[in-house]
Amino acid sequence: MATIGWIGLGHMGGPMSAHLVEAGHEVRGFDLDPVANDLAEANGVVVVDSIDDAVADADAVFTSLPRNEHVREVYAGAGGIWASAPVTALLLDTSTVDVETSRWCHDESAARGFAFVDAPISGGVGGAASASLTFMLGGDPAAVAAARPLVEPMAGHVFDLGGPTLGIAAKLANNLMLFVSLLGVAEGAALAASLGLDARRFFDVASVSSGESWPLRTWYPAPGVVDSSPANRNYAATFSTALAEKDLSFALAAGEASGLDLPAAATALGQFRELIAEGYGGLDCSLVAKHPSPDGSV
Ligand code: NAD
């Protein structure tokens, strides 16, 4: 069994690290948030006071952090991973970052002699809790092979996408598809309602017809139709609008860097940015269905 350092014990990192404890690993965790630390401790993670303490002597180090800048700071900062982990430690970042940050992690890790794997995830907090996440691994073959058994206790599916940054590339392309189809579901549901269709009866049709999709099945934007829909719970976030904006902006930046025009994704991004400007960034991204609502409320 391995000694694992885990930085970032939030909505995803908390339950994910707990599965590694269940699998018999010693997990030393660090987070800036005392509430996250307390929850992790209750799950058997040995909570420590610094990144240094979490990664010293580690066989592997996981990061699960909000944004590019947090990942860069945790890796490169004084007392950060590169300064403190043994060079034999395998480094895995499960955060959703942009391709540029992922490339930087690979290059700067390699320059210091570390093996790094981009290991983004799909499946949300439910997938993290039930250990059914999809892992998308990018890196050199030996590093990805070493990563696989470490991520398996948290995973339903593990994919080796090939070389460095191809895991994050798969994650961004997947989420672009998700958010563009979410807008289609939102507009189709609005049209159906405006033409007098009952939401449940229309859902029954679309879910076995060519309008079927993951957001239709999971986030149908009318209360009382799909149990998992945030519409039943005032749009409490299962995937926040702020996170959707982040992922889509990274996808668009990646498209721009490769000379690709992505007009549908740009429209979806604009919708999420409007919601954030109106103060709804913390609510579920399926709220786009209510925007703009006829009475101006959400
Ligand atoms: P979160 O905000 O709940 O957790 C991130 C944690 O990192 C927080 O507890 C925060 O205190 C901690 N942190 C920030 N800076 C730190 C530092 N310098 N040192 C130590 N800890 C620090 O976010 P989350 O929902 O768990 O998401 C984590 C990552 O996973 C993000 O990149 C997100 O895009 C990605 N992701 C999230 C979901 C989801 O549904 N929530 C799904 C797939 C991928």
TrEMBL record:
Residues 3-159 form the 6-phosphogluconate dehydrogenase NADP-binding domain. Keywords: NAD, Oxidoreductase. Residues 167-290 form the 3-hydroxyisobutyrate dehydrogenase-like NAD-binding domain. The keyword NAD applies. InterPro entries: 6-PGluconate_DH-like_C_sf, 6PGD_dom2, 6PGDH_NADP-bd, HIBADH-like_NADP-bd, HIBADH-related, NAD(P)-bd_dom_sf. It comes from the Bacteria. The keyword Oxidoreductase applies. The active site is at K171. GO terms for molecular function: NAD binding; NADP binding; oxidoreductase activity, acting on the CH-OH group of donors, NAD or NADP as acceptor. Belongs to the HIBADH-related family. PANTHER family: 3-HYDROXYISOBUTYRATE DEHYDROGENASE, MITOCHONDRIAL (PTHR22981:SF7), 3-HYDROXYISOBUTYRATE DEHYDROGENASE-RELATED (PTHR22981). This is NAD-binding protein.
